[in-house]
Design a protein that fits this description.
This protein is an alpha+beta fold. It has one domain. It has two helices and eleven strands, in the order ααβββββββββββ. The strands form three sheets. Strands 1, 5, 8, 9 and 11 form a five-stranded antiparallel beta sheet that branches. A four-stranded antiparallel beta sheet has the order 2-3-4-10, with no helix packed on it. Strands 6-7 form a two-stranded antiparallel sheet. The longest helix has about 35 residues. It starts with 9 loop residues before the first helix and ends with a strand. About 5% of the residues have low confidence.
Amino acid sequence: MKVNIRSYPLNRMMTTRSLTALLIAFMLTPLIWTIHAMLQERYSQSVIEDNIFSQNRYRITSQQQSIKLEFRIDPADIPRKPGEVFQLHKLIYNHHHTKIYLETVAWHNPPKNSDNIYITLKFDPTYLYSKGSFVTSTIFKEEHSYADVMFLPKYYADDGSVIPINDGNSSREVFIPTEQLKGLNGGLTLKYEGFNLVKYERE
């Protein structure tokens, strides 16, 4: 009795497996994108932030304007001529799921106005899905609204003298008249009081 055994080339077997894998991947792609979209809608930082600030499915459990922030700007990072800009992105605070950066120090010369040193802070909170906390310049109100807290820092030269600030400031952006920095050889120390520590939880 004679038995014929058919054999398949290895490259043909690999081609069949590759086509099968591609077919499975093609069929699963819509499902993967759907799951990804659902997760983004539920867990993305922007969505959680929007829901916390609008108090949609989240509630503010407490808030305290109690966070103090103090940091120094080195002399090398203080602009000395018009148009000079330093993009520093220097981490100056890292607590309560919030990072705060000294983002920009620039020579600001608006038209028909005096020159100023312009300093900005950048807040980078991490929002947790179930509950957490973050630091902000925003105050939350009972009627599910919110507003920025208007308070200003104090600026000190290295010798301890107070440096006046200019008008048009906010908690995260401050202008210092450049004439106040004439003869300043050292750095600047900024002292903030009153940033809001907010705690929240999902309802």
